[in-house]
Amino acid sequence: MNRQTGQRIVIGISGGIAAYKTVNVIRELQKRGYRDIETILTANGTRFVTPVTVGAITGKLPYTDTFEPGRALSHISLVQPCGILAVVPATADILAKFAGGIADDFLSTAYLACTGPVLVAPSMNSEMYRHPATERNIARLKKDGVHVLEPDAGYLACGSEGPGRMPDAETVADMIEFVLHRKTGGPLSGMRVIIASGGTAEPIDPVRTITNRSSGKMGKELATAFALAGADVEIVAGTGTACYPAYCRQTKVQTASEMKDAVLKKASAADIIVMAAAVADYTPETVFHEKKKKDGNLLNLRLKPTTDILKTLGTRFEGEKILVGFAAETSNVEESAKKKLTEKKADLIVGNIVGVPDSGFEADTIRAVLVAKDQSTVPYEKISKEELAFHIVEKISAIAGRNK
Ligand code: CTP
Question: pTM of this prediction?
Answer without folding.
Answer: 0.94
